[in-house]
Amino acid sequence: MSSPDAPARSPEHPAPPDPAGRPDPGVPSRLVKLGSVLGVPIFITPSWLLIVGFITISYAGFLRDQIPGASASGSYLLALVFAVGLGVSVVLHELGHTVACRLLGLRVRRIVVFLLGGVSELDGQAGRPRDEFAIAAAGPAVSFVLAAVCWLPSLPLAADSAPAVLLLLLAWSNLIIAGFNVLPGLPLDGGRLVQAVIWRLSRSRLTGIRIASWGGRGLAALLALAILAANLMLRTDPNAQLPGLAATVLGLSVAAFLWFGAGQAVRTAELAERTAALRLPDLVRPSVYLPGSMPVSEAMRHVQAAGAAGIVVIDGQGRTRAVVREAEVRRLPEHRRPWITLSEVSRPLEQGLIIGAGSSGDAVLAAVRRTPASEYLVVGPDGVSRGVLAIADLARALGLRYRKP
Questions:
Q1: pLDDT digit string (tens) for 362-372?
Q2: How far apart are CA 48 and CA 87, in angstroms?
Q3: 367 is in which domain, residue-wise?
Q4: What does R_g of the chain's alpha carbons equal in angstroms?
Q5: Quick check: is 188 in a domain?
Q6: Same domain, 168 and 289
Q7: What digits encode the pLDDT tens for the residues 292-308?
Q8: Are 379 and 319 contacting, i.e. CB atoms less than 8 angstroms apart?
């Protein structure tokens, strides 16, 4: 049997988890799956139904005025068709990004359409500025093409016919989608174009993201000011007050989305940089290896004598069985520690609690997301324990806030 303070091996977990493993992103219950295209699942959120209803109500009157003989019910039906067509246009815009990602060897987890548009969720990120540029440009390019595809068939039709009016509306809408998305600020595609150019010139992805993020915040501020100014002008027209209020709320929501999305882009990029520089061996706490039957008070004497900072529970054959939870020990009053064993304040080992000592920062984060815990066992390629990784130490190294339980 190995001595209590010796590194231990577990035959149930002889090898570290796959460093290339990815967390299962899961599917939030609020998402509704529409189907898959090119193997990429497409989801909508309930908030998308709000924008469909808003567009239907807002455009029904306009369509009735533009199409002679259109009934009230018919104009609402046509407005609903337009709203759905607009949703399809957003999906096709995102599929443009998806195709570009596939051509560049990047995987897209899913496409989500929500209140303010859509997003393609990538598994990873572009490795070169030109790849980032190509992916960002693909979406607006599709929208420009859709604008032309909708406009051309409308030319031979009577200008006041239902098909012509709908096609022209979709053409203009796709043109606006493309134009808005190429504005130079994150999280818009135009911001990613700026990011790619700055990245290429400065050789720093983070510099590009920071500059593009400030562009996004500037756009958000200008949009909010423009909407508030327009709303003040409309207050003199009683007929425009209700539509103006709805448009104001929607516009300010877009401005808030731009502002917070830009900030999130910077935080994500900074986290990615810190993750890439993470060295797991620097975070591993030297540990003692003690039987689960040992009282906590006795175990703490071993920890102090060895100058350790973690405790791993072993069985009679010296095999690792559990990791002691520091928070549980800390909560124990001194007078109770002689009567509580290590087994009672530990978490039994499972595959998700074992991290390979050579794992990259991305792989460590993936393991933590898969199996949330306060402590993990770090093992070498030989299956021998190297010590304990505490989630508090990991959060500190990544500059994240961590509230101790």
A1: 899 889 989 99
A2: 9
A3: 280-397
A4: 28
A5: no
A6: no
A7: 999 999 999 999 999 99
A8: no
